[in-house]
Amino acid sequence: MEFGWADEDARHRDEILGFLDEVLPGDWEAISKHGPGSDQQAAFSRTFCGEMAARGWLTQHWPEAFGGRDASPWRHAVVGEEMWAIGEPRGAQYMNVNWIGPAIMHFGSDAQKAEHLPRISSGDVLWCQGFSEPEAGSDLAGLRTLAIRDGDDYVVNGTKIWTSYVDNADFIFLLVRTDPDSRRHKGVSVLLCPVDSPGVEVREIPSVVGARYFHEVFFSDARVPASCLLGPEGEGWNVVNYALQYERVGAARYARAARTLDRLAEIARERGLLSDPTVVERLAEARGVCEAARVLTYRVIDERAKGLPPSPHTQLARVAGTRSDTVVANLALDLLGAEAFEYGSYGDANFRLAMTAGVAVGATEVQLNLIASRFLGLPKL
């Protein structure tokens, strides 16, 4: 693998950094520490993504036919690294451009593409994902939310939990069971459900992670037009697997962790802690973990750039990214002690994000099981 960036990609990184200096408000750091689910960041993301779209950068890695510029996946990676490093000013819209849009491109009807892709590409819409359920958790195949066809609608009943960004979302990428007699991966479908559909109720779950981060979503005889079905009925598992391959490396957590690590190293120097070989060793270990996550992510991007099918490297990159968050968060606690829990500090912001890293986008344990079976070829016990 060539570890240097192409000249045009390096220039684009400089363009992105200049853009961020120009458009981010003076209090951006304070806004970002509330988390991407906060009302402040959700409101800001619409303006910010509109600015990116006006420059042709928001979905530049998409095909030109769908509002993109046919840019390579590397260009998208450049944007993702710089956005995540400073707290993701795209807010929940990073999901839109990373995996929701591509899933609609691949499985959507012409009408769905015409309705949703221009809005995503212009930065004018917020989405969330409705996957986890109270009785299933990370076991997506254990979902029970039912969507029964009734004329031109699906009638949806069930509950989703730990749903992020839903309070400001316009649509929910909703995983449902359309065959009540089916089990596991069979009979599953995806609905592009408007959040304001009658019968949909959202309740926030208070947490230490951040404002508006987790929610329960209740569906009580909610009527969703059948035109919202993404892909063939009962074949939603294929849709989800396709989307997850994009989702699992869409958040450059290692970039945010590395930025936090830089600040921790500065603090250690200011306080004379670098004379302690244990501190130096811990800082070096954390740096190695961040770099490993970056390189493993690059391997996945390289496969995409070459048009190769998804591979187990996606799971490896996902676990490495989770580990970078956790290692840096634990180091902040060990170096700073109680100070690391001060709300809004570098340590606190990273620690709260790290708490979700091992669960969001598929639990780390699930990813390790996939690595064991798909990468190492180990038998299931």
What fraction of residues sit in β-strands? Answer: 5-15%
Q: What's the quaternary structure here?
A: single chain
How many E strands?
Answer: 8
CATH architecture of the largest domain: Up-down Bundle
CATH homologous superfamily label of the largest domain: Butyryl-CoA Dehydrogenase, subunit A, domain 3
Structure explained in plain terms:
The protein is 49% helix and 14% strand. With 381 residues, it is α+β, with helices and mostly antiparallel strands. It has three domains: 7-125, Butyryl-Coa Dehydrogenase, subunit A, domain 1 (Orthogonal Bundle), CATH 1.10.540.10; 129-234, Butyryl-CoA Dehydrogenase, subunit A, domain 2; 248-375, Butyryl-CoA Dehydrogenase, subunit A, domain 3. The strands form two sheets. Strands 1-4-5-8 form a four-stranded mixed sheet, covered by helices on one side. It has a four-stranded antiparallel sheet with strand order 2-3-7-6, with no helix packed on it. β2 and β3 (153-161) form a beta hairpin. The two termini are 36 Å apart.
List the helices and strands and how they pair.
Blueprint: H1 7-23, H2 28-32, H3 39-54, H4 73-85, H5 93-107, H6 110-121, E1 127-130, E2 146-150, E3 153-161, E4 171-177, E5 188-194, E6 200-205, E7 214-225, E8 229-230, H7 236-247, H8 253-270, H9 277-305, H10 313-336, H11 346-357, H12 364-375
